[in-house]
TrEMBL record:
Pathway, per record: Amino-acid degradation; L-leucine degradation; (S)-3-hydroxy-3-methylglutaryl-CoA from 3-isovaleryl-CoA: step 2/3
Species whose genome carries this gene: Geodia barretti
A cellular-component GO term for this protein: methylcrotonoyl-CoA carboxylase complex
Coiled coil: none
Record-given protein name: methylcrotonoyl-CoA carboxylase
Amino acid sequence: MAKVHGFCRALFQRSSTSSRPPVLQRSPSFRLGVRRSTLSSSEAPFPVLQEPTLACDEAARRNRDVNLSLFAEIRSIRAAIEGSDDEVRRKDRSSRKLTVRERIDLLRDDGGEVLDVGLFAGWSMPYGRVPNASNAVVVTKIAGETCVVSANIWTFKGGTLYPISVKKQLRAQEISMENRLPCIYLVDSGGAFLPLQAEVFPDRYHGGRVFRNQANLSSMGIPQISVVCGSCTAGGAYIPTMSDEAVIVKGNGSLFLAGPPLVKAATGETITTEELGGADIHCGVSGCTDHYVESEEEGFQVTRRIVSSLNLSRRRRREREEAVEPPLYSTSEESFASLLPPSLSHGQWPALEIIARVVDGSRFHPFKEKYGPTLHAGFARINGYVHLCHQSLVVAGALLSNYNRTLPETSILTHIIMLRK
């Protein structure tokens, strides 16, 4: 305290021997000294509150009984909401699909907290009970980054969207936008709930605003990643195609505006779900999805790798710099000399072999591997930082061309550069 008093005296005191006020010099340790000072109870800025004594024990008992019953009711509602998935799984033991909670648990960091948003939304609506608004929204950490996750609850009405589902989806996007958090969509939806479609789309803050928000998130540079875990019909199909990167699960995931029954009714053609909009079609032909996986578990591993490549956290960038892995293969002049053709017109560039000798740990995360097979595109780290390389030009993952570029290859180049612009 003596330092504080001395500083205050110097602040207001003028020198009697000079016409000019003295220059005040603050001790470099002044702030540190004040913060570390130990105050006695009499000098503490705020007194400690004592637990009040209730004037009437009967009033306290009534309060306790009422509130404990409310707490029990909340717990029972929560159990009913979270138990609805398990009931569907018991009825359909042959399903390869995971419940929403299982998906979120596989996606998030081990031991990380999960903040549910709007868990009780939709519990008592004029049009009936919609558990968790048929759309689970949580804030959690994925690969060390705080993310917003919005997941369709396929175990309730096939994940169809009610008016309250749309409202909750918009809220998730608002949280992502206002806090600049990556938005992860676990898509498994049959589109709008048709008996209530008149209340889903028409107004300013209804279904169409979901896609407006996606465009705005993209323009703000906030990453959006979709995992297509099931059938995505009509409005449910737009979200993955408007995301920055999309993962699709073979056999379960599908994208189309109308399913095989409607195609049959409209054209007379008989077609399967996989042929119409499965993983092979959208990864290898249309290019709507970027990562092809065999199972949901693999899909969430790929999603975590995508999040880790975003370079969002400065702290994580420092950690990556400190833990740089050398390439696993020889980086000598002789090894490169044996790989490179004499000229571009003689033979193909062994792109992956070159990448393996340049990037950290020879690790490479491919992008649109089945779309445009003449181009190797993806992400890798060099000295801890994620890069995108094209031949000798470093722009921002690792990317080398083997042949002349066609439309798919050009599309990949444009897409991947926009992802990390």
